[in-house]
């Protein structure tokens, strides 16, 4: 059997190695357009920032290694130009020599990945404008910085690569501005959760210029200017485009394979394309979102690697299936970590789901053990079945752990009510006796059995005196900042002050994180009040309000006259 | 409703607070024998070591707090002497005044905890011998160390408390010796996994004196001598007894409640004891092990806190159930972390289960990102159904995360084969595109579909030439140490050397961690060899061999003449 693999990173490389382990006799040929194979694409921003010091660390695998260990022929600098699906051949160009030749296959695996979205502009003359996909791109940026010592950079795009680059370039001492049309960083997060990232970015001096769509990029004296559709512009010494990724599927399209959303390749759960003996894996394929059941594009390394293994299994006759992605992801941002799994509230709304949500602010480990930090967790669940729909966490240590626990729970179709029963490992340096994930379960159980009713920051509470607005924090906390219109009765003074509150009016209660206001709500409800607990507390409110204010104080963009 | 709670730590304190949140009108009275309520019992060793600096951090909750916030009467220094279950009263002694009185109840919750196992010796005169259970014990040890500056300490017992104390006293500069009859630390670990802990202990200068049962403890000039049943003895400036814990159930026994294993209190899944209106929670109760279905004693804070909440729910008419424990636990030991969930191999054997196992040595995060470390993971599963039975991990960062993911998978009854499909969050600082938990799944799938056959360190391989013993590491690695009798052919040289191996003999293959030997086994099997891959690799073998050697070099114990 002769297997040709187009693309030697992530899915392609995994498929090649697994194929060999399953079939010692197969002929396995990999064509990779770039000069590197199976490189650490998720590490590229960290090489630019100097966190990863050696180029070799990114490119540990070489064509020679693949040949020696796996007897696989890896051809770098080889671009596959066309698929002849009836003849079962591909036309290949050796980019080093210009030679063009045909290669036959019994099975063809496409692992072309996704390419950075680049504005429809001619940027070839602009030496100070880069995009970031390959090792070569990385080395170009690295060399440019070494040689030209740029002091400022414009980053177009605030997704994974944009955010990771922002941190790395900031750590190099550069003046970093992220510019994009979207009003927030990291689309997998809901806006109130992204506000925590924005605060951290701003605290590190990174400027955020949201709401600007780039219409032109041009060289200016010693640098580059991005001109926006809204007429403004920003200048910097260099610019990196990291706006998003698009499936790199021209080859598949030209070959007439069935394409799906955003021209991704449609595949079965066995990674089969629409044409026999052609398979596809990785960022270029359309997957089933395992939470929504909808078709989705999920450009992440985990799914790509899993699919690479599965396609090799399938080709070798094993019954392996890809069961879909739930989009679990994690991101480091300076000392902060953000992580998500499943869908966010924006998606739940767009799908018209009947959902509910909780926010909590637990510590990553026992409060009395040094080094603890607070994380903010949002859990989304079906309001009828309580099935888990998604989770988002921003914080510091221990965020990645809780998202993986939640991802595992969701993978098994767990309901939010079952989270409270999870027997998780506890010792003071690692967790609390009630782990944050258990806590989320307790809170959702309280909602399910009617113990608690919630209100949300985005609810427009009447300010006409028809409801009571109550802040149950201490007088000091209240004096330090509170939501307009809320009166202060600390929770510990509430029992003796119940008579001062009107029973006929609903009471909306807030505290710092939601715990004291929950205790207050229980006290109130059992005394005949219709009380509602604010999800997320003043802590969430303050971060969102601060972010809204900072976003309003628009970054000075030179308006064209 | 009047609820009396015996014991104000963990389960008792949780029950009290939850009761108030559910029932504003109930009368809630807590009796706690010690001087402190809801204290941080898992933090006590860290106060002794100075990691937790302030006593207040351990005792954040006070009777006054409970009164103000929850309107709960917490009586410290009050010992409940007797339960009169027909009269529904308890007899209480105020330990401060000596006063004895009766208190009636509608519902009684027993949360007496477990007490350190103390040898049947009169130790009252020995001021330099301590046990560790309460805040008072902690302060006693702390004060003794401050005042007497002991240079050496004997710790009897190598469980959680013993190991945590060893680290903390070692960090104070003390010469620490752990003495016990068991041949390993941390019984939840299998012996080969405990070997990693032993190495770490020894590397930090902690001495391990296993196989000695203490028969007497006596004062010697300026210190203490522990005399062993085997005739040896050890001396030190002080001694702490941390041999294990026993359910503190005299009260329940005297009251005629049904007791279970080791005199623990038998309860239903609603935490009901054998007598109406009496409930029990925490370390004193017998639970169902959720993996084996057997009765078990699991003295951990997580279950105790969950049970405290459940008993309050039940008393207030909610349908809450305790679904059993799977014994998830985690321990810090210097920079090392060890964690377990489910059952270990010793237990699986004792139960006669038909199990199988894998070992793997994955990195906690992408190898090219700085700061990575190797962990050793052991996963146990049913050899027929592939249901997960247990996992043990020793390593550094990221161990607690993987055990919680595995604990969640096990809680949902996941099979080991499903681990490969988990969609876990990946970025280079946190994981690899194939997370260690996915990797365990891949390995077990390979066993399930016959792709790999394993051999184990404990297998007695014939050394009579009837089998081939093959080490596939590099020549340098092989020269640095190898298993006796194994010949060396590096994996990358194997294809061209296949003809040197005899096809009629089974081949037992080893490499450092099991990956290269797996590749070699695939190559061999497809070339007609009957090849077996060593689980855990030379890495595991070397640690176990080193530990066996160190244990043999017996600690000098002065033999009595």
| Quaternary | homodimer
Determine the most extensive contact between two protein chains. Answer: A-B, 89 and 88 residues
Largest sheet of chain A: 5 strands, parallel
Q: Structural class of the secondary elements of chain A?
A: alpha/beta
Proportion of residues in helical segments of chain A: 25-40%
Shape of chain A: globular
Radius of gyration of chain A: 27 Å
Architecture overview:
Chain A is α/β, with parallel strands linked by helices and 561 residues long. The first copy, chain A, folds into 4 domains: 2-114 and 246-315, FAD/NAD(P)-binding domain; 129-243, FAD/NAD(P)-binding domain, CATH 3.50.50.60; 335-448, FAD/NAD(P)-binding domain; 454-548, Rhodanese-like domain (Oxidized Rhodanese, domain 1), CATH 3.40.250. Helices cover 28% and strands 25% of the residues of chain A. Chain A has a 5-stranded parallel sheet with strand order 3-2-1-7-19. In chain A, a hairpin with a 4-residue loop joins strand 4 and strand 5. Chain A is globular and about 90 Å long. The model of chain A has no long low-confidence stretch (mean pLDDT 95). At the A-B interface, helix 1, helix 4, helix 9, strand 22 and strand 23 of A face helix 1, helix 4, helix 9, strand 22 and strand 23 of B.
């Amino acid at each position: 059997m002769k297997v040709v693999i187009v693309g030697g990173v992530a899915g392609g490389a995994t498929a090649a190695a697994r194929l060999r382990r399953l079939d010692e006799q197969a002929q396995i040929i990999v064509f990779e357009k770039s000069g590197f194979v199976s490189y650490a694409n998720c590490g590229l921003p960290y090489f630019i920032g100097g966190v990863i010091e050696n180029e070799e660390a990114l490119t540990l695998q070489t064509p020679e290694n693949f040949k020696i260990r796996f007897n696989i022929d890896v051809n770098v600098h080889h671009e596959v130009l066309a698929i002849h699906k009836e003849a079962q051949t591909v036309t290949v160009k050796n980019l080093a020599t210009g030679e063009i030749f045909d290669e036959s296959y019994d099975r063809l695996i496409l692992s072309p990945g996704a390419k950075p979205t680049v504005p429809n502009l001619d940027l070839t003359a602009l030496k100070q404008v880069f995009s970031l996909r390959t090792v070569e791109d990385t080395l170009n940026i690295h060399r440019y910085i070494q040689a030209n010592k740029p002091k400022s950079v414009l980053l177009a795009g605030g997704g994974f690569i944009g955010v990771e680059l922002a941190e790395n370039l900031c750590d190099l001492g550069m003046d970093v501005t992220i510019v994009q049309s979207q009003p927030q960083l990291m689309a997998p997060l809901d806006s109130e959760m992204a506000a925590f990232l924005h605060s951290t970015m701003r605290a590190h001096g990174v400027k955020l210029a949201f709401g600007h769509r780039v219409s032109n990029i041009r060289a200016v004296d010693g640098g580059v200017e991005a001109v926006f559709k809204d007429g403004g512009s920003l200048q910097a010494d260099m610019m990196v485009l990291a706006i998003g990724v698009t499936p790199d599927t021209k080859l598949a399209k030209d070959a007439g394979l069935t394409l799906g959303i955003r021209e991704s390749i449609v595949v079965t759960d066995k990674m089969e394309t629409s044409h026999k003996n052609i398979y596809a894996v990785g960022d270029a394929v359309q997957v089933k979102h395992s939470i929504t059941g909808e078709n989705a594009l999920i450009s992440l390394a985990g799914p790509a690697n899993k699919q690479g293994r599965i396609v090799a299994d399938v080709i070798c006759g094993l019954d392996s299936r890809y069961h879909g992605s739930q989009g679990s992801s994690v991101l480091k941002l300076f000392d902060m970590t953000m992580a998500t799994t499943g869908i966010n509230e924006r998606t739940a709304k767009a799908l018209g789901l009947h959902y509910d949500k909780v926010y909590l602010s637990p510590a990553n480990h026992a409060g009395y053990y040094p080094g603890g930090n607070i994380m903010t967790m949002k859990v989304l669940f079906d309001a009828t079945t309580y099935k888990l729909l998604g989770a988002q966490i921003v914080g510091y240590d221990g965020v990645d752990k809780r998202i993986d626990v939640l991802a595992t729970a969701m993978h098994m179709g767990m309901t939010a009510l079952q989270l409270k029963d999870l027997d998780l490992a506890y010792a003071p340096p690692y967790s609390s006796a009630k782990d944050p994930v258990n806590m989320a379960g307790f809170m959702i159980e309280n909602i399910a059995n009617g113990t608690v009713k919630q209100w949300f920051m985005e609810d427009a509470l009447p300010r006409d005196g028809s409801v009571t607005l109550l802040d149950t924090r201490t007088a000091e906390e209240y004096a330090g900042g509170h939501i307009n219109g809320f009166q202060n009765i600390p929770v510990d003074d509430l029992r003796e002050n119940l008579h001062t509150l009107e029973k006929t009016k609903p009471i909306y209660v807030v505290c710092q994180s939601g715990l004291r206001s929950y205790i207050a709500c229980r006290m109130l409800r059992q005394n005949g009040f219709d009380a509602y607990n604010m999800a997320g507390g003043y802590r969430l409110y303050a971060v969102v309000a601060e972010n809204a204010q900072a976003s309003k104080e628009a970054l000075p963009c030179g308006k064209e006259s």
